[in-house]
Amino acid sequence: MDALERIAAALERLAPPLPAAADPLAHPAYVWRHGTLIAARAFAPLPLGRLQGMDAQRDALVANLARLAAGHAAQDALLWGARGTGKSALVKSAVAHVQAQGGGIALVEAVTDELASLPDLFAAIAPVPRAFAIFLDDLGFDAARDGRALRSLLEGGAEARPANARLIVTSNRRHLIPRDIAEQSSAINPRDSIDDNLALADRFGLSLGFHAIDQDTYVAIVQAYAAAHGLDFDPAEAINWATRRGSRSGRVAWQYFVELAGRHGLKL
């Protein structure tokens, strides 16, 4: 028996139990992990004003989340487009902005390989007197059939999301599913194949596109970061940084600023 107890203790140390479910009214952000709502550590998104080149997308998402927080009709939202353009940052910043304005809303980030457990999340938060933005980051499917569970959760399923929750999804793909021309041409009815692929994206009432930024916007993003920390920078060097990486994006601007801050001995 002693040997079995030692083995059990060793296994617990290797795979410690998940923390107890967090109070759904107590925290600004959560992570849905292995069927448990866990408080997010150090939820500190960038201020909305720090996000450059996305004014229209920002205003639309904030207005939608504010309606959700107020208990009014709101849309599920899809943020799609080029990588590194600030989609995920905007989701977090928009939720934090609505919270700062007094809105009763929380962010819940769910990993994309746990879609099957979302009905359990919906059941847990449905009776809570608070709104929830369910955040699915960098979502994409390889075939239309893989997205059908999500389609049912958005609408039309027996366990669709409750009135106090909306899905906020980011993806590099506009339609979440690649449009395979070969698959379409081999279908008995090509139109049916195309419609099946587009049906998932059509479930989102709010669709916001993000596109590659130009050089001026890239420099403006770096400028916003630098000004917030009282640093000067050389625009030519910032542009050269992006050129060497073959991309201009908000992510690359942040990476350059991290380099700049490190040179000045700043801790971010």
UniProtKB/TrEMBL annotation:
Q: Does the keyword ATP-binding apply?
A: yes
InterPro entries, per this entry?
A: DUF815 (IPR008533), P-loop_NTPase (IPR027417)
What Gene3D superfamilies has UniProt attached to this entry?
P-loop containing nucleotide triphosphate hydrolases
Identify a single GO molecular function assigned to this protein: ATP binding
Going by the UniProt record, its keywords in alphabetical order are: ATP-binding, Nucleotide-binding
- Classify the source by domain of life: Bacteria
Q: What is this protein called?
A: ATP-binding protein
User: What species is this protein from?
Assistant: Sphingomonas canadensis
